[in-house]
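Chapter review. Work through the record for PX domain protein before attempting the end-of-chapter questions.
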Amino acid sequence: LSGRRRSSGRSAVIAAADGLCETGRLSRNDRRPSANKRRLSKANTMVQETGNHVHHDQRSAISRSHSAGGSERAGSSKVNRNINRFSNFVKSGMEAYVLGESRMNGQSGEKHEIIISGPLVQWRPIQQYYTCTVDKPKKETKLKGLKSFIAYSLTSSLSRIQVSRRYKHFDWLHDQLSAKYIMIAIPPLPEKQVSGRYEDDLIDHRKHILQLWVNKICRHPVLSQSEVWLHFITCTDEKEWKNGKRKAEKIAIDNYSERQVDKFQRSVKTSEDAMRVMQERLGVFQKLFIGPVKSNWQKMALAFVTLAQSFHTDDHPGSNRMVDALKQTAHHYHQIGEDFEAHSKNDMEPVMESLYSFKGTIQTAPDILHVHKQAIQKYRECEGKLSHADAERIKRRVDSTSYAVLAEMNHLNTEKIEDVRVTMYNYLKRQAEFYQKMANSLNDMAKLYEF
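Structure tokens for PX domain protein:
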């Protein structure tokens, strides 16, 4: 990254000439027969350093780490391009961006700052937090009833405007964000299921996953300010909505840094495996609670009923009280069986949904890290083949990419901690409430026999 040192000497704002938080369109003058035709846009990334020279050294370390002993001598201006034109590095536009073969046309007003604070490289925190609620799924029709679909209402605390969006609109938005912000991990949407798509359980499940998805977008320092996202949650006019969609579609899209990326890549694998194990274990519990556990409690209820019937033939004065106590016990046991099934849905399903959302988000990380790695590799290929000035321009673009990746890594780690903390807290509280309710019920049953 390049920029100007402020007069204060203690802090500096580095205005990146070319950022790569988002991609957009190639200008007409920059189109070449062999160049990637994917659209690119400018990210206008700002990096703010806080503190003293230690942070400046960190920035230098990131820049130096992209060099593998190349010379600063002037050389041939020819740089070998990636032979595989279908690789993500090429298709995403990263190669053309690093080589300076695309003129980045960023959207005015959309700038994103990266802050270096001690060992952390992070996006500038959100200045104004807001929330967005997904609610009121409703079956609607068009073409005089020939086509039906489920629409969800979205209401943001930012504008208090309620809009109606279909699943296909969420799917479109996901594609736009994925193409526009190639260095950011976009959370997953619920799986698209056709069979039984209007069943209440499926609609409710999809609503919960969409709510998790919306929550993650609102909490992301970059995505929450994206023009296409804000248009998605605020536009109510049909004509403006379509115009905004067309506009969005038109703007398509250190050993230090490498050590951090490698460390994060290893953590992604372990996190993914851990989430998978948690999902499997919870899935086993759900099947047990819905099947054998519920069945056994309700079979015990029938056993209490049978035992109660055996007292009907007795003429003993206490027999009636025993019959009543046993029947009430049977009723409670049957209800506990129902409660186990409800517990698996109401208390365990939210955990499964959170794990699905987080696992789907981190699964996008390897592609991001691979693109970053290839950007560094491309820079190293250029060293010694270009003039010092041209090599420096490429290095600045690669540095910008590194800062974006490090900031996104920090955001994902922060999100992981918060997601697991909130999910486990709510799950264990519900577990305690469920078993406390069962203990209270068993105590009440015991009192029935105090006669």
